[in-house]
Amino acid sequence: MQTLENNAALDAALANHSLSIGGVVLESPVVQAALSGYSDRAMRVLARRHGAAYALCEVLLDIFVAVVGTNSRNLAKIAVADEEHPVGGQLMGANPDDFAPAARRLVEAGFDCIDINFGCPVKKVLGRCRGGYLLGVPETALEIVSRVREAVPAHVPVTLKMRRGIDDSSKSLENFWRIFDGAFDRGVAAITVHGRSVEQKYVGPSNWDFLAAVKRHAGQRIVIGSGDLFSAEACVAMLARTGVDGVSIARGAIGNPWIFPQTLALLAGEPALPPPTIYQQRDVLREHFKLSEQLHGEDRAGRVMRKFAIKYARLHPEYLPVRSSYVAVKTNAEWQAVLDRWYAVDGAGRAGDLDRDETTECA
User: Fold this and answer.
1) Tens of pLDDT, residues 300-339
2) Buried-most residue among 40, 201, 218, 244 (CB within 10 A)?
3) 120 in catalytic set
């Protein structure tokens, strides 16, 4: 895991607590990434309540957004709460023609920023010429950027999510810089760069040296870093070592909204906050369940929350049996029964090996 060092770069990171994406001014440089299958309205609201300055919805297919009807499950995917502004909507697709109507639909739904995904490394996504695949075809990627920027009002920022390339070849690096510079030339307000290649998926460390090189190249243009952010210490270390303008927390935020106040405490020069106690975990689990129930309905809330509860379990001192209990849940009543059993007595929480958790698609 990346560790924190005391140096001049760290002092600069501690002093700069704000981040602007176009005309959208954020209170801190700590944001929640788009997470496929996870960052719905409930997760985003919870992250914002815990101090995330900004959050992105789970990645949405452009063709889905453009034709979304009145189906409750579909509408839930683009639902925005008043309290989560500013909030970003992320699009992924293959055909430039499909992006403009989808981008306009997200603006109509209430999203304050439109993000384009050129980073997803999942095999089925690459096979459909989406996500990280587009890093290998700069002409198409930049045409998508132009279509989105032209489609939405000038006050709505357009941003981009990239990995550092398809692989480690010189051609891949050439394509990266062509898309990176070309996207800014076409009006994007910020670019989030993940330090792994598409070929790498989630294996091996994120290349923070590459992120530092990107920020040096970018100058005053806004670069947000991503990759291996599983603790508050790692978030502050990335800001210090790379000079990026913000950090985008992905898998490290699933079942762990406390990473936001923990990071903000370090940025404020305060002592590190401890892991949440069992009662603190219980209260947030209940809060998250209620938010999920409001979004997905009583019938689906338990099934949706099971995958989150499995992640929350990492912070419980009895991690393995708690996790196993949640894995077996099939109904809301069973979900509540696990909560009543394992969170009935307060105690210290567990930091957990959060950086060794299983991967999440399109994070």
Assistant:
1) 888 889 999 999 999 999 999 999 999 998 888 888 899 9
2) 244
3) yes
Residue of 44, 113, 107 lying closest to 294 (CA atoms)? 44
CB of 37 within 8 A of CB of 361? yes
C-alpha closest to that of 281 among 326, 236, 249: 326
* pLDDT > 90 in the chain, percent: 76
Strands 19-21 and 24-26: antiparallel
The pLDDT of residue 70: 62
Residue spans per domain, the chain: 8-267, 278-342
| pLDDT of residue 14 exceeding 60 | no
pTM, rounded to two decimals: 0.92
Q: Which CATH class is domain 8-267?
A: alpha beta
d(CA 256, CA 357) in angstroms, rounded, equals: 12
Encode 218-246: b = buried (16+ Cβ within 10 Å), e = exposed: beebbbbbbbbbbbbbbbbbbbbbbbbbb
57, 113, 120, 362: which is the annotated catalytic residue? 120
The 3-state DSSP class for residue 91 equals strand
Identify the three-state secondary structure at position 147: helix
